[in-house]
Amino acid sequence: MKTIDLRSDTVTRPTPAMRQAMATAEVGDDVYGEDVTVNRLEAVAAEIVGKEAALFVPTGSMGNQLAIMTHCGRGEEVICDANAHIFHYEMAAAGLLSGVQLYPLANLHSDKGISTLSEHIREPLSYLPKTRLICLENTLNRAGGTVVDLAQMAAVYRLAEKFELKAHLDGARIFNAAYALQCEVRELTQYCDSVMFCLSKGLGAPVGSVLAGSAEFIIQARRYRKLLGGGMRQAGVLAAAGLVALADTSHLLVDHEKARRLASILAQLPGVKVNPAAVETNILLMELTEMPLELFLAELKLKGVLAGPMGPQTVRFVTHGDVSMEDVEEAGEMIGELLASH
Ligand code: TLP
After folding, report:
1. What CATH architecture applies to the domain 250-341?
2. Cβ(209) to ligand 1 under 6 A?
3. Average pLDDT, stretch 43-70?
């Protein structure tokens, strides 16, 4: 039976062009800085995000954690959104590895959140933690792939500068954000000191993310990457796929169309709440109003469609290059059948 996998854009498999590039990649020992393909990827990535230097890392989680570790000292505080990936899905790593405290704020990126942000920056009192870092996320996964616009990014960054804080951007899906806003990635990333983006999500590479920032920041992050066991040797075979992924990213726009199409189908169905206007990129959240979530996901799986949970009654669908528009329509039909039969 055919499977239509809408759990995540992480499930995308390398394209034939990526496999070809991987097979022929020129490699060396990257811990000695001698893997020319990794070096090329880091240079290309730094250029795209407009930073001095970049570091190839195995995962987005490691990239975010290296950023926290590099920017912060023990006992300091990191402001993030209440929906942030670093808060929900990185296994308390910020506390465990960097000894920092996360301070999650509801709707950090919204105009209202930004207008009250300064109230949450700690005063320099001897008994308070020191606020050190603001962590942004764009697109915001748990909110449904929503986009933080340029004005909002700029406003947070200006505040960070004013209070002498650093700003890190979890830009796992920053290319999706840039396409949604019809701007260049670097226009968004100018408003942060460091950025992590993933090659292994919608961009389609099999493995890898990039952390970028100042040359000095990356020197320290590179040391911490080794500390965490992320010093990879002939990693050029992976970086080669990343370079192919970065050469053409325009297919992300099609992913957004697929998500909108799915939303328009689902919005017509009984027993669910979907707001097509809330679909800004390749992620779509659907609220089940009648059927229990686990039952829905299990029965949908029997029909060959995979989706994931994102809250007690919320289903997340993510579109990507390995599902076609026809697959999306087929999935919509099967979801309709399932809800009707319940
Ligand atoms: N997100 C995964 C899951 O962990 C939820 C997904 O399927 O969406 N930042 C953001 C915003 C992310 O969405 C993810 C992965 C990461 C960081 C971490 O990347 P990896 O999985 O490479 O560690």
Report:
1. Alpha-Beta Complex (3.90)
2. yes
3. 99
Nearest residue by C-alpha to atom 6 in ligand 1: 8
- The tokens for 75 are 């006992």
Write down the H helix ranges in 99-206: 111-116, 150-162, 174-181, 185-189
CA distance 237 to 228: 21
H runs (alpha helix) in the chain: 16-24, 36-49, 60-71, 85-88, 93-98, 111-116, 150-162, 174-181, 185-189, 215-227, 236-247, 251-266, 293-302, 325-341
127-147 pLDDT, tens digit each: 999 999 999 999 999 999 999
- Under 8 Å between Cβ of 57 and 211: yes
- pLDDT of 1 strictly over 90: no
Boundaries of every domain in the chain: 14-247, 250-341
- Residues facing residue 306 across a β-bridge: 5
How confident is the model at residue 286, as a pLDDT? 98
Domain spanning 14-247: CATH 3.40.640.10: yes
- Is the shortest distance between the CB of 91 and ligand 1 below 6 Å? no
Band (pLDDT 50/70/90 cuts) for residue 292 is very high
Query: Ligand 1 atom 7: the closest Cα is on which residue?
Result: 8
Question: Is any atom of ligand 1 closer than 6 Å to the C-beta of 320?
Answer: no
What residues does 130 pair with on adjacent strands?
76
